[in-house]
Specification:
Elements lengths: L1 H25 L8 H21 L19 E4 L6 H22 L5 H28 L4 H12 L1 E18 L12 E9 L5 E5 L10 H13 L3 E7 L2 H8 L6 E8 L3 E8 L4 H4 L5 E3 L1 E8 L8 H22 L5 H28 L12 E2 L4 H8 L5
Parallel strand pairs: 1-9, 2-10, 7-9
Antiparallel strand pairs: 2-3, 2-5, 2-8, 3-4, 5-6, 6-7
Helix pairs in contact: 1-2, 1-3, 3-4, 3-10, 9-10
Amino acid sequence: MRHILGECLRAASLLCAAVAVILCMFYDGSGGARWGVLAALVVGAVCIGVWALLTRGAPPAGPSAPAPEHLPAPPSVLLRNPVDWYLTAGMILVAVAPWALFRFAAHQEIDPAAIVLGALPLGLWTGMVLWLTVKKLLIRPLSKEHRLLAQDAKAGRVVAVRFRLGSAEWLRFVPENSTDLIDPKLEHAQMLKLLDAEGKWYGVHGLHKDVNGPDHARKQLAVFGPRFAGEQVWMLWPQRWEIVLAVARRQRNPAYPVAVVADTGEMVWGYASLDYTDRYLTDSANLRATAPGLRARPVSPRPYFRGAVHGRMLLRLALAAAAFTPVLLDAVSGGVSALLGLVAAVAVMDAPFAARRGNTKVPDPSRWNIPPVEDLRTPPAAVQDAHGGRLG
């Protein structure tokens, strides 16, 4: 019930934002105060505030579920990541809102040439973000390597090994090429830590970072790790791993495509280092038939409020609302109105990037195991651990 209420509040806040943006697109500031836009913004702010209070203490793994039955064989159908409709709707609003805010504030207030000069980069922003949203969030193609794995599973055979899932690890390390002696800049990586039947550790990273919005893979690992910690899972590699290896050695970040599947049928796509993987791939006993018709679906992230992430985003949105309120109240005009509209537009544009910066730098200790910082400029063992194919 709590989860359903939280989802309704998120949807209501997005709906209110959409109403405000649509009104700004079809009206301007010449007709007096726009109370409808203000009302939509206030209701949306209340909804997101209640959602934040409701979810800030949400359990990491979601609601408890009965113990699943053991999957006797790997699944034959590996599905793509589901569409994140909330993120998609949010990115569409981020794409359109800056242009709508500036147009509302500047129309009939400043010279038309100045409006065109300001609207041109905002229009380019709208087109770029919409294109990326369609490609990355709606079409959401799998990489060629993961499509190969999915094809092998559907064809009936993959390399598959049972592991015990340890934890989701958030690694922080000083890169090898860093020259800073005091307060060096840290890099971050996330992975699943797994233990095989011989007691050897193995690491799986999520899908590569995405340029559009928060990193979906990171959110998936943050759910999958705590939810299935201590349980047995299937690790899948493609049957045609030799082809992958030949191509991967020519790439910048060589890795094997993998899928980690829990007995519930939930899974995550990922990558594993070429190192320490041959022991699984070259063992003929690990070449297994997949179960026809058995489907594995990527785990769905469970959103919850985090001050380090959502607080930064909401601060930008609050700045945008504060700058735009005098325009909506018809309290300013001319260049001041256009300038405030531009400030609001820029604040909205930066909001998702502010959230992403927090999401990539500040781990949640309730969902991640956070080892001490490693300096890769010194012990070679730290290099192997942080870059992860081996943890063992």
